[in-house]
Design a protein that fits this description.
3-stranded antiparallel sheet; 5 helices; alpha+beta; 8 strands; 234 residues
């Protein structure tokens, strides 16, 4: 019997379930997530417009607008680069050639026009047109200043030949002599000054006062001819 008991004990020992392994230690908790402040998005401001520039101009740059014998030489003139408001509601860069004595005054006037958003279609120096033809410049509604030319129907020099006159939006503000043959030729609809459209000039307009309050004379105040585009000084 003892042998049988020993055998049974051995069988029971072999059939006993093995002990379970110890559970693994718990994982440490993750580190707390650092809450970052929400990113601040900044609106990047557009670069500032280039500053107005006044610089000397050469005879080569003046092209056909100047020739020997003109009353103002290149050394008396200045090229002014400045910003103006366009008919598209955007700012554009323009160029005028004026007498050195009025360059700062021109900058002052056009800064005021830009501030009030008076629209100017374009502002190019007249040598950009074949033969520096004033009629072509006016038909293109181009605002311009210096051009060595005379007064229409006269032997006298225009103040444009001295760089002391500026024509503003000339197609919308035509030259109307007593004969009624207006310039430019394509300005017929705007001879009627009862019209009121952006870019036109009328007596008492803020754009006219931007010139006249600073000592410029306006051709729209003349009896004959009426020159609605024209401002002069000196």
């Amino acid at each position: 019997m003892p042998a049988v008991a020993a055998a049974m004990t051995a069988v029971l020992v072999q059939c006993a379930p093995a002990s379970s392994p110890a559970p693994p230690p718990p994982e440490p908790p993750p580190p707390p997530v650092r809450q970052l402040p929400p990113e601040t998005f900044r609106t990047v401001a557009p670069p500032p417009p280039p500053p107005t520039e006044i610089r000397p101009v050469t005879a080569a740059e003046l092209g056909a607008t100047w020739r020997p014998g003109c009353p103002a030489g290149p050394e008396e003139l200045r090229l002014v680069e400045l910003d103006h408001w366009g008919f598209d509601g955007q700012t554009h860069r323009g160029r005028l050639v004026v007498h050195r004595d009025v360059a700062e005054a021109v900058v002052d006037v056009f800064a005021r026009l830009l501030e009030m958003r008076y629209p100017i279609e374009k502002m190019r120096t007249v040598e950009n047109y074949p033969g520096a033809d004033d009629e072509l410049s006016m038909r293109d509604n181009n605002t311009s200043a210096f051009n060595c030319r005379g007064i229409p129907g006269s032997d006298s020099w225009s103040l444009h030949a001295y760089g002391r006159a500026i024509d503003v939006n000339p197609k919308l503000n035509p030259y109307v002599p007593r004969s009624g043959v207006h310039e430019p030729a394509n300005a017929g609809p705007w001879v009627d000054r009862s019209r009121s459209e952006p870019g036109m000039l009328h007596d008492g307009d803020a754009a006219v006062l931007a010139f006249t309050d600073r000592g410029w004379r306006w051709g729209g105040h003349w009896r004959s001819p009426l020159d609605y585009q024209h401002f002069e000084i000196g």
